[in-house]
Write a sequence for this structure.
């Protein structure tokens, strides 16, 4: 039976032609020549009706399987050619630098401030704020540092010149985002002034931290800049003790500097705390710097006179306060040796953090 | 305050090593800022005599010697050849170390050991081994008269070892500006007794009918008893001015005080020892009153009075300054510095010793006004011990007699208008625990305070409290809490336990603002801008590029003209940072800063939080292919960053109003407004002249906004809007409009036309040039129409769109370009 015998050779020829196609066009042409509507194989199938009835099922089966095979090969060949066509002419050099979508970075002082704030917030502190232009009362007098007090020696203060346009220099009561400074005007020498601002504006208990800029009349060098940042903490409640202060400070510095940190308190003097301490810390990092202890912060129990100045009864309320320099922490953390780098904003510096 | 280990040992026993003393002082609150070891480098090296020298049994070049070190005989194996029995040599004993050589880290320590089978109990040294010479040919042979057993340092004439401590004395503790004061702390900490030098019994202190010899030779008239609380005068006759003895000179020099002569050194020594500043006058240079008796007058200076101080400067005084005078002239600036006219000279025979107490505030003011500080003013302005004045005077007289000879005139003139009355403070024992969180037993509290010289009054003792009187030297102890601090300090601050954080939850209005500022920072950094922190203090000149002089706040006492104004804007600082970066070839610079600015206004001084951006240089990071890769940033890079920031931060309804004229700072600029009224800030391109001043070659784009307002006006809330379920239909429109027609006007016109179902308008092309008449531009917009509940039909969209097109054509007006 010639029809059936022709199936296999015809399929072989079709396969050969499909496989020989080297591009899509040749493949489509081969497809059309064989299994398209006018293709040889399609025409061949149409002759099926001319076969005797009893031969038709076997022939149909053979033809269908041959057609399925051709179509499978066609699909495979199509995928293959498509893949080849999609490949770039030259292979991609994956070692070439890509097109960057740069992100910016936060200033290292911001990063360190945020970390300190995060640590304190874990234990219930809220962030507070105060003006940078201060008056003598909030910066000194209310903090138990009267004008002739020797402690004022250690803080050289920038005072503001009188307004040149004869306008008033202040005392418009400042609420809201744009605050107004009162009095003669100086740049706060420490964030401790925020202690007073907070105690004047809200009743006890108080649990706040206040990061911000402070100013000292020091010439700029590797360890001084007339502008720098401090963070102040204040906790006032009933039954607050120096032991709480120690526990809190230890917690925060372990959060900031790593769990291997040891913290030491040492008696010191600040006019607005009594007793007063300096806080030293020690860690593998400090040892590497060739030191046993590194001074980090000052703190103490709020002086009863300070409570009396804001009208709080020191027999009922006790509290502690601390303050430390943010630049100093950042310098230790990152191994930065010159404070002025923070204010130059060199991208090669900013990019490192 | 500098003090030495050995000097302290003279007043109190303690067994702490010099290193331990450093720690102990630190933990008592006397921070040790520096430690300097003096001498002592030849510790363990003595003069020894070789008794015999024999050949080593197992080595040709070695010898075995018997050596006398002054205490015992030792066997030493030695390789040197240049000595014989009888010679005196330096011997280092086992356990001691050779001096460090340059570059050496650890010293070489001598041990007892066997050399070729023979034990050697030390080492005889060469000059080189001792760091004294380069000679290593043999042992250093000492003079024949050297005393066997003498420490080698002493043989060389070098001082014995001592340790100088440089202590930071906190301003509340004037009593610690003295060796005795520090020794007193050590005595309290160790429980040992404080040993003061013994003084001869005071002469003439017993009341007598007749005036003492001193009273016959001098009168003291205190005219300002407020400022001078006590004046003690003694006179030593017949001194011989000359150099100080070695011990005195050495003690002063160790702590950094220059030796002058025996009398002046004695006053300085006693000041360092007791904390009481003293002054010595040449008695005969004081003007004699009637009867040949001078009077020391303690008075105000006359306004404008000139006075030559010891340092050779002539100073003009005010009536607020206290002067020590005789009846005709000033002789010392009280408590600050003596006068040239009565200075001790080589010819001085009779010496008047002044030991006084001056009011701290007055001394401080005088010293500050004159810019003149001295060891004396330093101590008086912190508060001297009024009860110490007489002791120090007697001690000084004793030392003068010892070092300069002469005889002390019997008696004293001691005028004391401000007699000392001790303060009495009650300590409630429960308060100690309440404040410290540490239990300190009552007996311990009392014992600590007593050891510091506070006298407890047993009559006032109850189980709950004790009452103490405060000694004259502790001017810092004023109330109960001060006593609690003393208990904490002496009991050991390290004994206060740490307790876990507890207590109230913090509340403050600013807390949320802090987070909003942080959010602004994070959005800007995500946009590819780097955060800068500029100086608050800038030059007035730089500040004036941003605002008028009238709005500037200047410093009254600036450090320099570079830093004499408070920044009225963040932009001058950002320009400095751009300049800094470009000078270092960081070409693409995109910075932002969030910070405060300070402005003078009619209502007073104002602080305001601002946010500023500055961009310059290439738009993209360096890339190796592609068009436009060298493109520079332009105003729309800045505007785009700002648009995205405002969107992310939740500030809507911002409009930009172009300013018709260039300003001082900006070439072309726009005001940024909210709701058409509130001015939030500005943006624009920096004036080229200014850019040149800052060495900025590429165009610079800057913006500054009021962050307080942004925070107040933002709507940070997010609410979900269902995603569209039905397809949108887009219609594009290109049209020609006049140049004056701004994008905002097109949007406004679209809004007025109120096309049905219009969802979005997007500008996708602005074109000038071919086929566009001069003075016009071609703008192309995509309009998207969508209905929330069904699919729109073409007919519906066409109807709405045609209405819109007609409106634009008529009202902009616009010529529609056929596509």
């Amino acid at each position: 039976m010639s029809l059936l015998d022709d199936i296999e050779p015809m399929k072989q020829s079709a396969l050969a032609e499909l496989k020989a196609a080297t591009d899509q066009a040749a493949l489509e042409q081969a497809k059309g020549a064989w299994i398209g509507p006018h293709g040889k194989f399609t025409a061949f199938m149409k002759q099926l009706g001319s076969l005797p009835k009893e031969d038709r099922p076997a022939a149909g089966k053979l033809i269908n399987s041959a057609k399925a095979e051709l179509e499978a090969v066609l699909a495979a060949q199509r995928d293959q050619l498509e893949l080849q066509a999609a490949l770039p002419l030259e292979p991609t050099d994956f070692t070439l630098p890509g097109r960057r979508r740069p992100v910016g970075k936060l200033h290292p002082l911001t990063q360190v401030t945020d970390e300190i704030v995060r640590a304190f917030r874990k234990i219930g502190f809220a962030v507070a704020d105060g003006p940078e232009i201060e008056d003598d009362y909030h910066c000194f007098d209310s903090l138990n540092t009267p004008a002739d007090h020797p402690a004022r020696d250690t803080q050289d203060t920038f005072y503001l010149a009188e307004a040149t346009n004869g306008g008033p220099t202040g005392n418009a009561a400042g609420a809201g985002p744009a605050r107004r400074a009162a009095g003669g005007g100086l740049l706060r020498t420490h964030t401790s002034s925020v202690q007073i601002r907070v105690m004047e504006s809200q009743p006890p208990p108080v649990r706040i931290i206040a990061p911000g800029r402070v100013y000292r009349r020091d010439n700029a060098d590797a360890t001084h800049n007339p502008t720098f940042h401090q963070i102040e903490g204040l906790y006032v409640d009933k039954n607050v003790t120096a032991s709480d202060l120690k526990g809190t400070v230890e917690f925060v510095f372990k959060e900031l500097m790593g769990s291997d940190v040891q913290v030491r308190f040492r008696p010191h003097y600040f006019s607005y705390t009594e007793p007063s301490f300096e806080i030293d810390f020690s860690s593998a990092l400090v040892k590497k710097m060739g030191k046993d202890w590194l001074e980090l912060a000052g703190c103490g129990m709020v002086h009863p006179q300070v409570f009396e100045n804001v009208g709080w009864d020191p027999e009922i309320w006790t509290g502690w306060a601390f303050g430390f320099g943010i630049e100093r922490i950042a310098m230790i953390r990152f191994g930065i040796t010159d404070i002025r780098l923070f204010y130059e904003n060199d991208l090669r510096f900013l990019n490192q953090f | 305050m500098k003090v030495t280990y050995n000097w302290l040992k003279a007043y109190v026993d303690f067994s702490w090593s010099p290193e331990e003393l450093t720690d102990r002082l630190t933990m008592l609150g006397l921070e040790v800022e520096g430690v300097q070891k003096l001498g002592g480098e030849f510790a363990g090296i003595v003069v020894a005599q070789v008794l015999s020298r024999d050949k080593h049994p197992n080595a040709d070049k070695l010898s075995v010697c018997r050596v006398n070190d002054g205490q015992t005989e030792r066997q030493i194996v030695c390789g040197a050849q240049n000595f014989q029995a009888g010679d005196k040599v330096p011997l280092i004993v086992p356990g001691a170390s050779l001096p460090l050589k340059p570059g050496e880290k650890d010293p070489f320590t001598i041990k007892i050991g066997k050399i070729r089978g023979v034990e050697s109990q030390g080492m005889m040294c060469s000059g080189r081994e001792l760091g004294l010479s380069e000679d290593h040919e043999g042992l250093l042979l000492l003079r024949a008269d050297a005393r066997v057993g003498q420490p080698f340092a002493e043989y060389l004439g070098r001082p014995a070892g001592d340790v100088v401590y440089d202590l930071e004395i906190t301003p509340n503790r004037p009593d610690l500006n003295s060796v005795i004061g520090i020794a007193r702390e050590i005595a309290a900490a160790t429980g040992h007794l404080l040993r003061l030098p013994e003084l001869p019994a005071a002469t003439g202190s017993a009341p007598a009918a007749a005036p003492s010899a001193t009273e016959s030779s001098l009168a003291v008239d205190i005219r300002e008893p407020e400022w001078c609380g006590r004046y003690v005068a003694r006179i030593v006759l017949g001194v011989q001015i000359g150099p100080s003895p070695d011990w005195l000179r050495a003690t002063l020099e160790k702590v950094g005080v220059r030796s002058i002569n025996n009398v002046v050194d004695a006053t300085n020594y006693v000041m360092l020892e007791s904390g009481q500043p003293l002054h010595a006058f040449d008695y005969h240079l004081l003007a004699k009153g009637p009867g040949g008796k001078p009077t020391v007058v303690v008075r105000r200076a006359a306004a404008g009075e000139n006075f030559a101080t010891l340092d050779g400067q002539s100073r003009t005084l005010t009536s607020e300054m206290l002067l020590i005078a005789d009846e005709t002239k000033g002789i010392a600036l009280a408590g600050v510095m003596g006068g040239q006219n009565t200075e001790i000279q080589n010819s001085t025979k009779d010496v008047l010793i002044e030991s006084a107490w001056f009011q701290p505030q007055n001394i401080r003011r005088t010293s500050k006004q004159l810019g003149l500080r001295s060891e004396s003013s330093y101590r008086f302005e912190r508060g001297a011990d009024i009860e110490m004045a007489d002791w120090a005077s007697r001690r000084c007289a004793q030392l003068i007699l010892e070092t300069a000879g002469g005889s002390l005139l019997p008696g004293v003139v001691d005028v004391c208008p401000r007699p000392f009355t001790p303060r009495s403070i009650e300590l409630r024992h429960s308060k100690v625990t309440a404040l410290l969180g540490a239990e300190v037993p009552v007996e311990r509290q009392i014992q600590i305070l007593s050891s510091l010289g506070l006298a407890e009054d047993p009559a006032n003792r109850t189980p709950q409290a004790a009452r103490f009187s405060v000694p004259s030297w502790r001017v810092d102890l004023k109330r109960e809490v001060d006593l609690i601090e003393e208990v904490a300090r002496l009991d050991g601050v390290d004994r206060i336990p740490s307790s876990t954080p507890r207590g109230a939850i913090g509340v403050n209005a600013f807390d949320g603002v802090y987070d909003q500022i942080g959010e602004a920072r994070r959005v800007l950094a995500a946009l590819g801008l780097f955060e800068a922190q500029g100086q608050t203090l800038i030059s007035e000149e730089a500040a004036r590029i941003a605002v008028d002089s009238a709005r500037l706040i200047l410093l009254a006492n600036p450090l320099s003209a570079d830093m004499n104004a408070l920044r009225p804007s963040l932009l001058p600082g950002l320009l400095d940072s751009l300049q800094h970066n470009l000078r270092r070839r960081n070409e693409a610079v995109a910075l932002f800063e969030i910070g405060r600015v300070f402005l003078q206004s009619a209502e007073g001084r104002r602080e305001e939080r601002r946010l500023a951006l500055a961009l310059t240089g290439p738009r993209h990071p360096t890339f190796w292919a592609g068009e436009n890769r060298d493109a520079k940033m332009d105003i729309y890079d800045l505007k785009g960053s700002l648009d995205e920031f405002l969107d992310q931060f939740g500030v809507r309804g911002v409009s930009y109003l172009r300013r018709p004229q260039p300003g001082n700072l900006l070439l072309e600029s726009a005001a940024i407004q909210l709701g058409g009224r509130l001015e939030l800030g500005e943006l624009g391109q920096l004036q080229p002249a200014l850019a040149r001043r800052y060495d900025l070659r590429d165009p610079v784009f800057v913006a500054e906004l009021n962050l307080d307002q942004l925070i107040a006006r933002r709507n940070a809330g997010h609410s979900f809007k269902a995603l569209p379920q039905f397809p949108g239909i887009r219609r594009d429109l290109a049209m020609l409009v006049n140049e004056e027609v701004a994008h905002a006007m097109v949007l406004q016109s679209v809004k007025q036309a109120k096309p049905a179902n219009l969802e979005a308008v997007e500008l996708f092309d602005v074109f000038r040039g071919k086929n566009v008449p001069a003075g016009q531009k071609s703008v192309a917009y995509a309009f998207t129409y969508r209905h929330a509940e069904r699919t729109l039909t073409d007919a519906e969209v066409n109807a709405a769109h045609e209405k819109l097109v007609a409106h634009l054509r008529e009202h902009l007006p616009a010529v529609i370009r056929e596509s």
